[in-house]
Amino acid sequence: MTVNHDCDDSDASFDAAKRVLCCIHKEADIPEVEAVIKLVLPSVDFYWKRIAMESVRDIEAQLDSFDAALAAAEPGEKDELLRDLILALLASLRRRLQAPISPAGTALVRRSASSLMLDGAKALALPLDLALAPRLLPAAEADLLTLIRGRVELREQEIRAALRGLISQAELLGAPVARDVWRQRLLRELGVETGSWLPFVVDQWAYRWFNIGGVVAARQGGVLALVAVAILDAKTSNFCRWVNGRVISMERAQRQIDRHVSAALAGDVRAIMANWPLLTFEPTDGPAEFELKFATVGLPPYHGHCRTRTKLLRLRD
Fold this sequence. Notes:
The protein has helices spanning 11-24, 31-60, 63-72, 78-98, 103-123, 136-154, 156-173, 179-189, 198-220, 238-243, 250-266, 269-275, 287-294; strands at 225-229, 247-249, 309-312. The protein is mainly alpha-helical. A 3-stranded antiparallel sheet has the order 2-1-3.
């Protein structure tokens, strides 16, 4: 990963940049989290686009033999040839994604994760000692990289369907698919041209670690439970309006964090998704459905672009 901004690597420069971004961001979201997202996203975007474009170039080198085999193939063999092409693309992506990121990239992710967790604790007016939880920062770094790698695994069927459509188009026109058409479709399916999925990944990661910081600080401070608190405005989902004020036990939250840290350090995207699912809803969902779905999760974020956070449960006199 290459850092793609003008700040140097010092914590002071990072904090100064975050303060500026906090000041200019709209107040409806959590400013500290949004500031970190603005710092991380350009570098992650650059990192992913470089890897995807290099992998697509690897595939372009195989297209002459692929076209020849496709022209000679029986109808039942074409899908197998396409599968081999997709597997070659995925193998190239996996190989490149397994390479270590740059020291500057590692420093940026770790500074960002540390900032998110400390801000999550600060939002609860609690101190956080990251030294007492030494697995958190490595897990936060691994979490972001696992989410990026996981998108590769989970997009295989979408890529296959898109390229099958190109083959069908070529058969109708009676000519091979042009190289630039192949390249454009592959890059679009990998999100390079639109960048459509990458902001969602970084947003999910940032809000997650902000909330993790609050829970770890609360645990260190002996807090027994937290309460979900939604930002109530025109963007608030019906679920988050319903969950606002619901109690989250510390034991439940800690189990979720422990499982998440283990899954992230193992690089297991499916375990991450199972442990911390992003909920989806039907227009007809109401309290009964929300109750069932809340039972499958613990801490926010609960869905894509979720801004719900936690606060301490205070016993009234």
